[in-house]
């Protein structure tokens, strides 16, 4: 990447109203590892005192700049003899000089906006696409996307989807042939995919467009890598459970999951479902008693899949799944595509994947749909369950989905007591383990019963939570790693099983 060409940005706004936003934007650009290589920023307040008319200075700077960024708020600014403010003069000068213009408008509340500023915003909107912002993080995220697009348009950098680029340091030996074969089985069954198990691994990756000059792409490593976090550390998923409504220490349950994207989706969903309340019905209809969770499983899955599939994998942040006493929050690094807004998510909209190759592979296994209906399905599922509508917001460089739990009667402490008492919610695997610990059972036997092969994950996700909850116990508690160690149900565990059967 060559940085011989530097681009000068002129940032325009009413001086007093958006001073903090201007300075924050300049600081962001000059501190960003990519943008600072290409851009320098001009702010009027940075020039020293001189014997020159201010209006001449800022109009000359507009002519000198390569790119004009306008920040429009409520104020119009001081008006000159012709009734035009410096902010509008700068916009007109940039327009006349054919400078690329990027406009950001603060807030959507127009009740306090000066009529001439409202007219200027309409004038800008007639000529170009403008974006709104409500906070400095939203502004910097929007400007970052616009500047990267600018660099790509002018050939300063070659841009393309992150997931299509070759994964630095990775080779085909870092791809699991068994994971690829399992994926092909699922794709054939789910979508009638043309290439099934037995397709040579390299051919399968070629058909999925997951090779970049014979090297595995980032998408290939994330989907089928033997150790994806070795190359893309932040692709892990952090799951946290809080008894209250705020982030507070100590954290009752905190798990960091690693693995490929399919494993991450399954682990995160299991984490949440294992901690939600559930109701077990009768066997009147079938031999298996129906289970209803307080938040529909498909809605939880949709939120988690959205985060993992559409996050910004170039970010150093990870997906965070946080379960509180009143809600589930799923945070993923990145922002909505420019053509989508928070409001538009609640209406039928096109699917615009941030990682198209990842989305394609998840589509082939029916984990995601192309139609862009996932969030609408989530909203409908919550409505059918009598829950508050899900909420969506952009904050601190992350897109956040909030799914609400049912309103609990009584205080938070009463709710927590129910959670750690006999109404404790368990995953299906935990129920199966509990049911098979009526007699002393070895670890390997329990793993076979629930179809688990990873000993470490089985301990962390299934066994240890049961021990912590006091539902099962070790036969040799003084030697947890003993080769003779077995596990058995406690009296509390027997009570729990009795209650769900009733």
- The helix tally amounts to 18
Principal-axes geometry comes out as: elongated
Give the CATH level 1 class of the largest domain. Alpha Beta
Major beta sheet summary: 6 strands, mixed
Fill in the CATH topology of the largest domain.
Heat Shock Protein 90
Which CATH architecture of the largest domain is right?
2-Layer Sandwich
The side-by-side strand order for the widest beta sheet comes to: 9-8-12-13-15-14
Report the C-alpha radius of gyration, rounded.
28 Å
Q: How much of the polypeptide forms β-strand, as a percent range?
A: 15-25%
Instruction: Measure the end-to-end span.
Output: 67 Å
Computed structural class: alpha/beta
Low-confidence stretches: 409-423
Output the keywords.
Rossmann fold, Heat Shock Protein 90, elongated, 17 strands, alpha/beta, 502 residues
Write structural notes for this entry.
This protein has 502 residues and is α/β, with parallel strands linked by helices. The protein folds into 4 domains: 7-153, Rossmann fold, CATH 3.40.50.450; 162-231, no CATH class; 233-404, Heat Shock Protein 90; 426-501, Arc Repressor Mutant, subunit A (Orthogonal Bundle). It is built from 18 helices and 17 strands. Strands 9-8-12-13-15-14 form a 6-stranded mixed sheet, covered by helices on one side. Helix 11 packs antiparallel against helix 13.
């Amino acid at each position: 990447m060559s940085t011989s060409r530097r681009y000068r940005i002129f940032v325009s706004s009413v001086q007093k109203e958006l001073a903090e936003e201007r300075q924050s934007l300049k600081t962001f650009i000059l501190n960003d590892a990519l943008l600072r290589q290409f851009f320098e920023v001009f702010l009027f307040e940075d020039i020293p005192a001189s014997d020159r008319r201010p209006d001449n200075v800022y109009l000359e700077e507009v002519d000198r700049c390569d790119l004009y960024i306008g920040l429009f708020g409520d104020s119009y600014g001081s008006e000159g003899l012709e009734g035009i403010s410096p902010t509008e003069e700068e916009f007109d000068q940039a327009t006349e000089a054919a400078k690329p213009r990027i406009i950001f408008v603060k807030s959507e509340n127009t009740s306090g906006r000066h009529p001439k500023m409202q007219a200027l915003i309409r004038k800008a909107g007639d000529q170009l696409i403008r974006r709104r912002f409500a906070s400095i993080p939203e502004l910097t995220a929007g400007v970052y996307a616009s500047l990267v697009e600018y660099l790509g348009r002018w050939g300063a950098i070659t841009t393309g989807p992150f997931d299509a680029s070759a994964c630095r340091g990775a080779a085909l030996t870092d791809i699991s042939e068994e994971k690829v074969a399992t994926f092909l089985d699922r794709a054939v069954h789910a979508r009638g995919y043309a290439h099934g198990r037995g397709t040579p691994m390299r051919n399968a990756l070629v058909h999925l467009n997951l090779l970049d000059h014979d090297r595995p792409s980032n998408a290939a490593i994330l989907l089928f890598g033997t150790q994806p976090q070795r190359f893309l550390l932040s692709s892990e998923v952090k799951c946290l459970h809080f008894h209250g409504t705020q982030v507070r220490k100590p954290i009752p349950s905190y798990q960091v999951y690693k693995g490929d994207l399919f494993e991450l989706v399954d682990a995160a969903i299991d984490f949440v479902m294992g901690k939600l309340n559930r109701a077990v019905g009768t066997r009147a209809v079938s031999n298996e008693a129906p289970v209803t969770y307080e938040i529909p499983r498909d809605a939880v899955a949709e939120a988690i899949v959205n985060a993992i599939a559409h996050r910004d994998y170039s970010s150093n942040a990870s997906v965070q799944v946080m379960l509180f006493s009143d809600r589930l929050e799923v945070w993923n690094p990145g922002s909505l595509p420019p053509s989508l807004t928070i409001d538009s998510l609640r209406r039928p909209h096109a699917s615009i994947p941030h990682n198209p190759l990842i989305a394609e592979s998840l589509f082939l296994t029916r984990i995601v749909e192309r139609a862009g209906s996932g969030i609408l399905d989530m909203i409908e599922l919550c409505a059918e369950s009598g829950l508050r509508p899900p909420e969506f917001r952009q904050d601190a460089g992350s897109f956040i989905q909030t799914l609400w739990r049912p309103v609990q009667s009584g205080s938070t402490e009463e709710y927590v007591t129910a959670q750690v008492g006999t109404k404790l919610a368990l995953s299906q695997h935990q129920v199966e383990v509990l049911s098979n610990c009526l007699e002393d059972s070895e670890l390997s036997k329990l793993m076979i019963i629930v179809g688990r092969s990873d000993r470490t994950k089985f301990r962390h996700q299934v066994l240890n939570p049961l021990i912590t909850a006091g539902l099962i116990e070790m036969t040799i508690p003084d030697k947890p790693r003993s080769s003779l160690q077995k596990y058995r149900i406690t009296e509390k565990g027997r009570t729990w099983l009795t209650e769900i059967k009733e």
